Each structure stands twice: as C-alpha cells, then as structure tokens.
Amino acid sequence: MNRLEGKVVIITGASGGLGKQMALRFAQEGAKLAICARREKKLQETKDLCQQAGAQVLAMVADVSHHDELKAFVEKTAETFGTIDVLVNNASTISAPHPFLEHTINDLEEALHSGLYGTWQMMQLCFPYMKEHGGSIINFGSIGGVAGKELFELVRAATAWRVLPPTPQRRRPSAAFPGWSPGSGGSLASGSTAFAPT
C-alpha cells in the first residue's frame, strides 16, 4: 500500500465501472485524486468512497466531449494539488451495439468527440505539468477495437495508441484494452490485453 503516496492522479469517467474501481484503487495506494464524469450523484459516490480510503479528492462534473469543461477541470486540478503526475483517459460515450450499416454520422461524431478528441485534448492539457518531472498517461481502448467490432470500439482503439514522441524526459504513455466485464463490475475480463510502450 501507499506506493503512490503524494502522486496526483486524474481519472475521467470515474462515476462507475472501471473508472470508479480505478479511483478507489489509486486512493488505497495513497494518491491524490482528481475525478470527473457527467453523472454528479454517481461521481459523488466515488468521491465519498475514495475519501473513506484516506485520499484527498477533487470531483468535478465534466463532459469529455466539451473542451472548455476539460480545460477548467485540469486547471482546477493543478490549482488544488500543484501538479499532475498521472492521467487516466477512461471516459467515452458508449452507444448500444448495432450493425455497421445502421450507424449514423451522429454516432460517429459522438464517438469521436468523447473518445478520440477527448483523449487527445486531455493529453495536451496535462502534458505541460509532466514535461519537467515526468509522469504517466494511460489511455483506455477496448478489446473490441483490436478484434474489429463496432464503430465505437474502433474509435476507442484509435485513442489508445501512443501519440507522444519519445523524449529524454520520464514520461510513460500506455494503453489498455479491457475485455467485456459483466455488469460493469470494475474488473477486467480474462481476455483483456494491455500494451506498454517500448
């Protein structure tokens, strides 16, 4: 325990599922948390659990498809904790699965704005705080993107690949592709695959 004592961790989409469970785990390891999601009541539940585990927690309602809300969230995190050490890009809008030919342009735009664009913007916003002292960026995709499933999954796969150039500074971009987990219980399915940069 306390392997992350004092580290500042941002997690998007922390109101339930994997995001909630990751927030709790980081709290148990001693991290300071900044969490966001669209559902205020559920987000507060996550905050309460993490505080009970001993963590300092900043919780803000924010939609990852809205750049101004992300900017305000990151700025408030830096103002509250002084820096950012870890970014976990977990949030993305999930539409009900349906055949490829039935997808609309609105489906594509929603997936792009919440998945690809939101992930990209969070990395750009957090990167300056990691530039000097290093840090870790973890982008979540889906095993469905690797297997070539629905449109949403393909967008999630795109968000997960490393986009930061190799540099002398200690920055570690990573990607995780969780498999399906019944009931969003917060544990990765046995088919999950994780990729770390070489």
The best one-word shape is globular
Distance between the termini: 27 Å
Give the integer mean of the pLDDT values: 78
Helix content: 40-55%
- Low confidence ranges: 180-198
- How many helix segments? 6
Helix-strand makeup class: alpha/beta
Strand residue percentage: 15-25%
Reading side by side through the largest sheet, how are the strands ordered?
A: 3-2-1-4-5-6-7
Largest sheet, described in full? Answer: 7 strands, mixed
In total, the number of strands is 7
- Which series of helices and strands comes N to C? EHEHEHEHEHHEE
Using the CA coordinates, give the radius of gyration.
16 Å
Question: Layout of SSEs?
Answer:
Layout lengths: L7 E5 L4 H12 L3 E6 L2 H13 L4 E5 L5 H15 L4 E4 L15 H26 L4 E6 L2 H5 L3 H10 L10 E7 L15 E3 L3
Parallel strand pairs: 1-2, 1-4, 2-3, 4-5, 5-6
Antiparallel strand pairs: 6-7
Helix pairs in contact: 1-2, 3-4, 4-6
